[in-house]
Amino acid sequence: MEAKKAIITCKSCGEELTIDFNQASFSSQISILNGKKQESRTYLEVCPNCETVNTVTSENKAEWGNIKGPNVKMFMFSGLLSCFVILFIAVILIFFAFKGLGTVMDWVF
User: Fold this and answer.
1) 0.70 exceeded by the pTM?
2) What DSSP character marks residue 66?
3) Buried (b) or exposed (e) across 44-68, using 16+ Cβ within 10 A?
4) What is the C-alpha R_g of the chain?
5) Residue 19 to residue 4: CA distance in whole angstroms
6) Are 20 and 3 in contact (CB under 8 A)?
7) How confident is the model over 3-52, as pLDDT tens digits?
8) Alpha-carbon dihedral of residues 44, 49, 50, 56, nearest 10 degrees?
């Protein structure tokens, strides 16, 4: 699938830039309203003259090309997994902390 190429003018110096949606960096915004998922992407391109970051927002998936965006379910899974790992490490640390406290109490009393 062919991606769109947008021609914009730089915000600070006024030079024309071409943003290729297949090559540019982008950020995704996903919103769910009334059970309907809406996604938009903001493409970022740096001006070669003045180093200003210029943006173009697109809501049409046909313009985006073959680049896949972030997978929301994977973010949720990795967050849940990291919570379980943190809890597991905390339990191990607490176990050894009380074991060490017991050893100190045996020495003192």
Assistant:
1) no
2) T
3) ebebeeeeeebebebeeeebbbeee
4) 25
5) 8
6) yes
7) 788 888 888 888 888 888 888 888 888 888 888 888 888 888 888 888 88
8) -20
